[in-house]
Design brief:
alpha/beta, Rossmann fold, Immunoglobulin-like, 6-stranded mixed β-sheet, 4-stranded mixed β-sheet, 23 helices, 28 strands
Length: 809
């Protein structure tokens, strides 16, 4: 039986989940159910009811380094190997679909979920994601790149509208997804919670039909983020296949009625149902055990792989006078709570129940640290607390018998999590005070920095060496010690710019947006595109990373297909580095950053070895999106081609004449401050020129609707609604103060619009009941409660009838 031969109700039933992590099956049509699982850097396989925030228990799985860390390897082949391991573990744990990789562009360093995303640049994000996708799907498991698209902040994430001009959206925020889709052909893709230019991403026809399906040729399944579906009918009409989790039968009835009434073409319903059925059959494996666990061999082998990935991804930021590597016999004073209790992943839906855990202190004590000898250990700081001078004094007093201080510092668990954005780029003040005190001891100071995204580091001049390990996964401690002792030569390069201070960030003046409309006022000037064009100094540039080796570049040769050059390791250490290809457009052309990354290679060389490196151009190298013609164009003329060791340091430069599709034409003078990249000086008129129309914000809420977050109820004229909003806010603050961790469940509720209740309650609440709930903040408490109670019984009755009809009873 084919999908088109099913009843309308059966086809509609395929478009929503059957549980928190499962889809519906239709046995008579041979359509099996599928299990979906979070897993950008490790499977979070929950049994039973489960949750979408990482709070409930999950089966043990390998916790690999997070995407923000793996990106620093600049090695898509490494990402592919990691994906293969994730695919194998998915098979063992009974998972058909892995919900990852996360690949949103890092617009601002304070985004709470940046540790789950690769880069500020679409080339790095796109190619790293493509590698992971290819690896996962090589095992017969679907990968699901996310969140499509423009998901840039956690605050109000289910009720935010990302307002962006078409060029910036196409060239910066969508190009990463395009690279991944065209190269790796993912079988599924996940939409974001937010609206894009006024339309929810999960029902945005411009994104899903015009661009994803028609332009890029994607023919797979589109799934909503959990609770991220707004209208099931609009989603089906505009290219989204499956809403998750179980939304009950309300959406099923809405879809069937829309077909009956002519408001949804049955061809669209058929297409969406076919996409779900196709993936269910593609990923079905009769040997897969839904109650399975990892084998001992997988646990061992994948732990070793996690260590190798962490080693390849760590970035040596500072190494004064060759302080590193440390030689065997060095006596180290280990300082820092994170050296004893490692932090190696973020909080939220990506949190993995790791099969093993390591810490630096224990490995040194056990003699697994390349010959380093433990002179002392001091906690140094209260991980979640205020300044404690006694801990600082103890640390300072304990370093006397050491040759070097090894301090492990960074962001704590509550700083980086799904559901909330960081409030500052600083590491805790207690840790900065500790480093300042240690710097005064006269002992060499080596810092291991733990964080999933950039931090302010005005303390860096105190250090003899700084090794940034990111969020390095369960084997991060041994990987760190291998680098510190020279067993491994560091080769990581930053995948995002580290500003000197948060005030230097291009979007610092308007991020995060607390109201509905988040206007991407900075346009294309994100990350290094801004710092270089506007002439703003950074702390560490995009693409930066030190090595124990030294590399030289020579003999640049350009042709119409790409660039070739000679790379030499002229040191006594085997090592690897990342040559980066940047381009600069002909003078007098359209608005662009001063230069942009268009290719890269991870290259390993023996000591004294030379090789010829080739980086080819592709369809993204010279293009820009012409909004007048609604198409991609290339400007003819002399393009500057550069090979850099980072975004600021150009090692080789040449000129290539390109025969494009259009002649350069002068950028509109009305763009004003955009022409110099100085986006902090942009006026409303400049924005109008960039967007092609005036940009207006939504006014103050006068009537609360189903898509206004519960947090906005604090301004309601209803005392009950105000009480609910304030109670949840107080509960979240109290829980964080008590545990040192964010209360993700309460944050989810605060950010949640009421309509999500109909998507997250297993069918107990339908949209008619949501409409009654919304009456409460609008001052009609009795009518709202009465309508909700009546709707509850009406919905129960309707669900029984729908269930019987689907079961052909």
């Amino acid at each position: 039986m084919e999908v088109k031969d099913l009843t309308v109700l059966e086809k509609a039933s395929l478009l929503s989940g059957n549980s928190m992590w499962g889809t519906r099956e239709i046995k008579r049509a041979g359509i099996p159910s599928m299990v979906l699982s979070d897993g950008p850097h490790g499977l979070r396989r929950q049994m039973g009811a489960g949750d979408n925030l990482g709070m409930g228990e999950s089966k043990p799985a390998t916790c690999f380094p997070t995407a923000g860390t793996v990106a620093c390897s600049w090695d898509p082949d490494l990402a592919k190997a990691m994906g293969e391991a994730l695919g194998r573990e998915a098979k063992s744990l009974g998972v058909n679909i892995v919900l990852g990789p996360g690949m949103n562009i890092k617009r601002n360093p304070l985004c709470g979920r940046n540790f789950e995303y690769y880069s500020e640049d679409p080339q790095v994000a796109g190619h790293m994601a493509a590698g992971l996708i290819e690896g996962i799907q090589s095992q017969g498991v679907a990968a699901t790149p996310k969140h499509f698209a423009m998901n840039s902040q956690e605050l109000r994430r289910q009720a935010s509208n990302s307002v962006v001009d078409e060029r910036t959206m196409r060239e910066l925020y969508l190009t990463a997804f395009e690279i991944a889709v065209r190269q790796a052909h993912p079988w599924a893709i996940m939409t974001s919670y937010n609206m894009v230019n006024g339309t929810y991403a999960n029902e945005n026809g411009h994104l899903l039909n015009d661009i994803l399906r028609k332009e890029w040729g994607f023919d797979g399944m589109v799934v909503s983020d959990w609770g991220g579906s707004n209208s099931a009918v609009a989603a089906a009409a505009n290219g989204s296949s499956l809403e998750m989790p179980e939304a009950g039968f309300d959406s099923v009835r809405q879809l069937a009625k829309a077909v009956k009434d002519g408001n949804l073409a049955e061809a669209d319903l058929n297409a969406r149902a076919e996409e779900v059925a196709k993936l269910a059959k593609l990923t079905y494996d009769p040997k897969m055990d839904p109650d399975g666990n990892l084998t001992d061999e997988q646990k061992r082998d994948h732990h070793e792989m996690a260590r190798r990935i962490a080693e390849e991804s760590a970035v040596l930021l500072v190494n004064k006078n060759g302080r590193l590597p440390l030689s065997a016999g060095t006596k180290v004073a280990v300082v820092g709570d994170m050296a004893k209790t490692a932090r190696f992943q973020g909080s939220g839906s990506s949190k993995v129940n790791a099969t093993r855990q390591e810490n630096i202190l224990e490995l040194i004590e056990q003699g697994h640290a390349g010959g380093l000898e433990l002179a002392s250990y001091s906690q140094g700081y209260d991980r979640h607390g205020d300044m404690n001078q006694d801990l600082v004094d103890q640390a300072v007093n304990a370093v006397d018998g050491s040759d070097v201080i090894l301090a492990c510092v960074g962001l704590d668990e509550r700083s980086e999590s799904e559901g909330l954005d960081r409030s500052t780029m600083d590491i805790p003040r207690a840790q900065v005070n500790l480093l300042q005190a240690l710097g005064k001891t006269g002992k060499p100071l080596v810092v291991v920095l733990v964080a999933g995204s950039p931090v302010s580091a005005d303390w860096v001049d105190l250090c003899d060496a700084v090794l940034y390990i990111g969020l390095s996964g369960q084997a991060g401690a041994s990987a760190t010690l291998n680098i510190l002792t020279g067993k491994t030569n560091p080769s990581g390069h930053l995948a995002e710019t580290w500003p000197k201070s948060y005030a230097d960030c291009p979007s610092s003046g308007w991020y995060p947006e607390s109201e509905r409309d988040s206007i991407y006022r900075e346009g294309p000037f994100v990350g290094y595109r801004y710092y270089l064009t506007a002439g703003v100094e950074d702390l560490f540039p995009f693409g930066y990373g030190l090595s124990y080796s030294h590399f030289t570049y020579s003999n640049l040769a350009l042709d119409e297909k790409g660039a070739s050059f000679t790379l030499t390791n002229d040191s006594e250490h085997d090592g690897a580095t990342v040559p980066q290809l940047y381009v600069q457009a002909p003078e007098g052309g359209v608005l662009r950053p001063i230069r942009e990354l268009k290719g890269f290679r991870k290259v390993s060389l023996k000591a004294g070895e030379s090789t010829t490196v080739r980086i080819d151009f592709d369809q993204t190298t010279f293009r820009h999106f012409d909004t007048d013609q609604d198409s991609w164009q290339t400007e003819s003329g002399d393009w500057t081609i550069m090979i850099g060791s980072d975004a600021r340091t150009m090692e080789l430069t040449g000129t290539l004449s390109v025969a494009g599709t259009v002649q350069p034409h002068q950028a509109d003078p009305a763009l004003g401050a955009y022409l110099t990249g100085k986006v902090k000086e942009v006026t409303d008129d400049n924005m109008t020129a960039l967007f092609g129309h005036p940009v207006e914000r939504q006014g103050a809420i006068s009537t609360f609707g189903p898509n206004d977050p519960i947090s906005s109820w604090k301004d309601s004229r209803s005392g009950l609604a105000r009480f609910i909003a304030n109670f949840l806010s107080k509960r979240e603050r109290k829980q964080e103060a008590k545990t040192g961790n964010p209360d993700l469940n309460t944050l989810f509720l605060l950010n949640m619009p009421p309509r999500a209740m109909s998507k997250m309650t297993n069918g107990m609440i339908d949209m008619a009941m949501v409409d009654s709930i919304v009456r409460i903040p609008n001052g009609h408490v009795c009518k709202g409660l009465g309508g909700f109670i009546a709707g509850f019984f009406r919905n129960m009755s309707a669900n029984r009838r729908t269930r019987k009809e689907l079961n052909h009873e």
